Amino acid sequence: MSVQGKNVLIIDDSEEVRYLERKILENLGLVVTEATTIDLAMDILKDKIPHLIILDLDLPGINGFDFLTIRSQTPEIKVVPVIVASSRSDKESVNKALSLGANNYVLKPINTVTLSQRVIKHIGSLEYMRYTFPYILPEVSLQIKAQVTGIGNTNFILVSPVRLAKNCPINIVPPSINRVNLAGCVLMSSSDTAGRNLSGRYIADINVMGLKETISKQMKKNGAI
Amino acid sequence: MSADRVPLVYVVDDEESFNSLLALVLKRYGIRSETFQSSRAVLKKVKTHPPDLCIVDLNLGPHEKGYDLIASLRQLGNPDMPIIICSSDKERQVISHALEMGANDYLLKPLDREVLTAKLLQYIKTAELGFSLGETNSGGIYQTEIETHLHLNPKISQVEESGLTIISKHLILKGSVVHLEGEVIREISGRDKPLMVTIVSSELNPGEEIYTAYLEFDPTDKQLIENARAWLSKRWTKPVPKA
Predict the structure, then answer these.
(1) Within a 10 A sphere around the Cβ of B52, how many other Cβ atoms?
(2) Single pTM value for the model
(3) What mean pLDDT do residues B8-33 have?
């Protein structure tokens, strides 16, 4: 994944550190959001999932270690890599952070080159999230512009960017042509192979089934025939 | 066309009055017809003398079902033989079931002469018939230019951060802009309005008459991409890295 335009959340209570980190990240083309506490960060994470989190460990209220624990139990945030940026250089803190699921650890004062390299590495190896529906695929309603170019007694010609399957029920929106309401009818693509017009769009013969006498007369009256 | 090759139509209805009326109309168009009041009678005849078209009533009395007759006609007769259903049932479900069973078209009772004529012309494509029906001026197409929207119901198979994959019976041209609506779309986009997407690829699935299309979100719509990420983060399971 390229770094450009990706979102990073900085969690740090020091304004100076946030400013420095923001500059480094923005220079890489990243979009930065900041939070001074874990509570504020959790509010942001409710509706925005960043591509990376830069986390300080010593924070007022809930600390960085606690956040790592919360993260490991929250599926939505678990997918986001975390780089800890802390002035704690003792082995114990580093090991604790990594064992709680932190993906990397950089020491303060922040070194521009080191942080940049780690950020690029983590975002670069990120995979795009995807979800495949496992059993039942949800149906959606798809609308595309089309044109009725001809009307017969019991059929009409539809030009669209869609090569319709043969003998397949379709709908038009609104369900009327020339103010003739076809809502009660079944519209079916014909069994003939569809042709294409000069602009490459497909021409389909649509059969109108279940026509009532009144509708058929209306089609005639409204200039259809 | 030779004189002995006059189109032959079978009419199946349990009402004798309807049969004779339809036979009279068909005769006027120079079409030979034979009428039947039961499935058994028509099936026997179809084997030996297949017609050019069958008009079948869906309500063949209390003991017979029009659906079964359609299926049997498809098995016994010429598979290309057009079958037109006639019924006073106006429910869509009835229509679609008949069409699924193999009927080609559907007419509502009482029959409209113009509609019947147009359908006969459509299904019996013989020069002679075309001429005789042409005199009634019913086969014409009036040219027009009316903007409308084609409405289809594909299924979503996969959602990604930058777009989604749909599967459809229809091929949609690459580069087309479409609008998607539905519960899943509302959940992914976090919006209560149709989602505009562009078809970036459309391919036929090997061995199936189904197309897979990839639809891309508007890349400048940051809010949409963020909403899609939020939706995905609740469902995505990170692949285990290879050792």
Answers:
(1) 21
(2) 0.72
(3) 85
> What is the average pLDDT value for chain B, to the nearest integer?
82
Identify which of A27, A51, A45, A54 has the alpha carbon closest to the alpha carbon of residue A124.
Answer: A51
Cα–Cα distance for residue pair A83/A54, rounded to 1 Å: 5
How far CA B147 is from CA of A76, A185, B164, B185, in Å, comes to 44, 19, 27, 25
Task: Check CB contact under 8 Å for B99 and A186.
Answer: yes
Q: Which of A171, A168, A164 is nearest to A201 (CA)?
A: A164
Secondary structure (3-state) at A84: strand
B16 vs A: CB within 8 A? no
Q: How far is CA A53 from CA A19, A101, A118, B230, B241, in A?
A: 15, 12, 12, 15, 20
What is the rounded CA–CA span in Å between residue B45 and residue A208? Answer: 30
Tokens of A199: 């602009």
**Cβ contacts (< 8 Å) between B107 and chain A: which residues?**
209-211
The distance of A43 to chain B (nearest Cα, Å) reads 13
Sequence-ordered list of residues with C-beta below 8 angstroms from that of B29, at least 6 positions apart, any chain: B117, B120, B129, B132, B133
Positions in chain A whose pLDDT score sits under 50: 224-225
Pairwise CA distance, residues B98 & A2, whole Å: 54
Which residue of chain A is at minimal alpha-carbon distance from B165? A132
User: ipTM score of the complex?
Assistant: 0.79
Residue B54 bridge partners (DSSP) = B10, B83
User: Which positions in chain B touch A170 (Cβ < 8 Å)?
Assistant: 150-152
Structure confidence by residue, pLDDT tens digits, B44-68: 888 888 888 999 888 777 667 778 8
Q: Is the model's pLDDT at B72 over the cut of 80?
A: yes
- Among B170, B193, B211, B222, the residue to mutate for chain A (most A Cβ within 10 A): B170
**Chain B hits for A158, Cβ within 8 Å:** 148, 150
Is residue B203 less than 8 Å (CB to CB) from chain A? no
Q: Is B96 on the interface with A (CB under 8 A)?
A: yes
Token code pair at residue B95? 């229509």
Range 142-201 of B in CB contact (< 8 A) with A = 142-162, 166-173, 175-185, 190, 194
Give residue B91's pLDDT: 63
C-alpha distance across the termini of chain B, in Å: 76
Position B134 pLDDT exceeds 50: no
